[in-house]
Amino acid sequence: MQNLCLELTHSVYPHDQIYGDYCPIQGYINCPPEDTFQYLADTKKLAEWTYSLRNPMLHGEPDLYRFTDQIGGTTPCFCRTVANREALTVDYHCAWDQPDHLWMIYLMRVVPAQLVLDKPGSVVLWVNCHHPFYTRNPYPETAVPGRNFWVGDAWPMFYAGHTVELQNLKLILEHRHAHGLPVLGTPAVAASEVTA
Amino acid sequence: MQNLCLELTHSVYPHDQIYGDYCPIQGYINCPPEDTFQYLADTKKLAEWTYSLRNPMLHGEPDLYRFTDQIGGTTPCFCRTVANREALTVDYHCAWDQPDHLWMIYLMRVVPAQLVLDKPGSVVLWVNCHHPFYTRNPYPETAVPGRNFWVGDAWPMFYAGHTVELQNLKLILEHRHAHGLPVLGTPAVAASEVTA
Lengths: 196, 196
Known about the structure:
2 copies of one chain form a homodimer.
Chain A: H1 2-8, E1 12-14, H2 15-19, E2 22-29, H3 33-40, H4 46-49, E3 53-60, E4 64-69, E5 75-84, E6 89-96, E7 104-112, H5 113-117, E8 122-129, H6 158-178, H7 187-195
Antiparallel strand pairs in A: 2-8, 3-4, 4-5, 5-6, 6-7, 7-8
């Protein structure tokens, strides 16, 4: 066992080994886990803390939203959120261009930091898996005409991009928690999001 | 955003940056997610796929087991499993020496590979968080007399050790699934585990 472990343990690891097949990131947020869960489970809030999802519009039931993903110009990104309040999991089932096969899945989980870090707040776990459709667009006929970029082209930047977004999430939730503000934002802010 | 991402993205990452505060690993297992979940949710099976947990004995209700953790010689390791069948999460709440504060938490989650990798089987996500008690034993008076090793001393090897154990899990489950064997093992195997 010692030999096996020494063979696996290195001073550095290449990007592709760590972020090639899966993209796991994690972070601590000084905000109660129930609030963090409530915020993450609100699909519209993706327009607030992600880099490129904007203009959430309810597209269908149950809880299927259409965003514009500004990485793809005017590309629509569809998203259905599947949350489990007991396990504190929040999964965003998404896809560019079409809502019928939501294959881009953002797996999130909120863990009470009291349990795992001996302090109040939340640990957020976030994993994406390298679905083969990141390599080839399975529904090219649904793409915006003339677009010469595919979401999967950005896979090598997912670690960095998601890290920036997790930092956004942390700043928003820690600000609201520290100031006793509603975790979902004030009605005015919420309204401006919808019409932005 | 591009500048932020380029600053975060590197050709290699040091061990402590990737596995210092959290230890996330993941893997694909060619076994149906329900079977993988059922196997993981059976606490006694830790004696089968982990490196050092042996001799499971029911210690208390609900579902609190006492193992011997052979990394610590004759050290008892207590474990209560908290599983959620809907979210497919399986958390092992453990501690060396005493069963009253189960602070070593192994956070596992089974994800249907059909959803995230477009093929049958399971993706297993596994994260440990660097609880401060890994750095200092909070209950030294409960330690086996004369033991000069603490579980947290091994934290830098968790990535490697858990990777070997995840490989065990994969081999066991893929063998049983491929041969149509009961995922929990045959009764004879199960009995020999308990009395081993």
